[in-house]
Amino acid sequence: MPDDCLFCKIVNKETDTRFLYEDDTYVVFKDIHPAAPVHLLLVPKTHIRSVNDLTPSHQSLVGGLFQLAAKMAREQGVDQSGYKLLFNVEKGGGQVIFHLHLHLIGGWNR
Fold it and tell me: Active-site residue numbers?
């Protein structure tokens, strides 16, 4: 874990971030700069810098992220209306915090 990784600090409860979900592998919390009425961050507890750093050993971890996203979408009431799942990869792709995380974005009235 890099000493300056904000998400590692959040995972280790070194901040006052309120989790909507936590298990042995993941945490979920609200984005502090939401792009939609529902904007959650799904974060593996294991520090992985970005999608570019995934290896075959991470296959079940990434699959679990998608299963957790579907669960959180149901709990947030956006599973039927629709939502987006987004990984930002590297600076040019909009990644700001270099700890793998999946955005769940939805809740628009359309």
Answer: 101
